[in-house]
Every structure is written in C-alpha cells, then in structure tokens.
Design a protein that fits this description.
This protein is an alpha/beta fold and 184 residues long. Helices cover 43% and strands 13% of the residues.
Length: 184
C-alpha cells in the first residue's frame, strides 16, 4: 500500500515501533494525508490486501498447545479483536482453534477504530467478570482496553508493537508459553 502511494516502506522493526490506535492516526504518522487521501478507500484497500495476504498467515509457534492447556485448566477463553468479526471467525476456523473460545467479539466495520466499545459489548454478552480476567494483547492499545474494562493484562512481544514499547504498559511475554505460568 505504501509503495502504491510512493511513501517510504516500513521494516518490521519500524512498524512495531510506530503502529498504534487509532489506526487513522497511525496512517497519518507514516505519510498518508487525509486532506487528499480518502480514508474509506485506504481502509478498503487494507481490507482487500489483508484478506489476500492473510491466507498465508500461520499461527505463532506454541499457540495451539497453550490454548489447549488453558482449556484443560478450565480457563474460559474469548477473543476480542479490532479485525472484522466475520474475517476473524474465518481465520479461527482455518487455524483449527475456534473451539477453544467460548466467544468471539470483533469489529463490525473496516476501520479498526479501537476495541473498548467492542469489549464493553463483550462484557454484556458473555459471563465475564473483569476482576477475574487476564487479557493477552500485543499492542499498547490492548493495555488501554484492559485498563478501561478492568482487566489485568499481559502483553505479547511477538505481535504489532515492540517489546520495548510494551514494557511501558505492563508485563511482557516474550513467548506465548510464558502465559501458562500466569494461570497454573
């Protein structure tokens, strides 16, 4: 997308250093100008690009076994994501992990506009006690969401933000297996 707009491309390290929510502000930070760039067109381009490239995405090493162990421990698991809910459900099915989750709450639009409102809806729909909930996220925004919803948080360094940035907001898991020590 950046190449098409003749903007500087990002390395993985640079992406993890600058990505954030709201996503529109992230796009502005990497060179988009919404005085001349159409936000809806950019969002549609991202969704189309993501849908095409996500077919090649694989699960992070160890995730499936961690989900299985958590289920064995009797931990109720849910997914809260800024990703469109239909695409999220499709990915969970494709990865063979949908059955680990009692509920899924994704976005109802293409703008990845944050997760607090989706989390509030999730709390109304599912029997979740915030005082007994540990949220695992991979962005600074996830830490903000957890705080707003009254959840404890662990931040996974293998996602959208660097471990250095995540340490500003909470305890960082370098490997997903570290989560098992949090709940056993």
């Amino acid at each position: 997308m950046l190449r098409k707009k003749r903007l500087d491309e990002l390395t993985v390290e640079k992406y993890k250093a600058v990505f954030g929510f709201p996503v529109k502000e992230y796009y502005e930070g990497i060179g988009y100008d919404f005085n001349r760039d159409d936000w809806e067109a950019i969002s549609l381009d991202f969704v189309d690009t993501y849908a095409e490239l996500s077919k090649d995405v694989v699960l992070t090493s160890g995730v499936k076994s961690v989900l299985a162990r958590l289920k064995e421990f009797g931990v109720r698991q849910y997914v809260l994501s800024a990703l469109q809910e239909d695409l999220l459900e499709e990915m969970l099915e494709r990865f063979g992990i949908r059955d680990y989750f009692e509920g899924v709450c994704g976005s109802d639009n293409i703008y990845a506009d944050g997760k607090v409102a989706h989390g509030e809806r999730m709390l109304q729909v599912y029997p979740i006690d915030p005082r007994e909930t540990l949220m695992v996220g991979d962005t600074l925004h996830d830490a903000e969401v957890a705080e707003a919803l009254g959840f404890d948080i662990r931040l996974y360094a293998g996602g959208h933000n660097s471990a250095e940035r995540l340490r500003e907001k909470g305890i960082v898991l370098e490997r997903m297996e570290m989560l098992l020590g949090e709940v056993s």
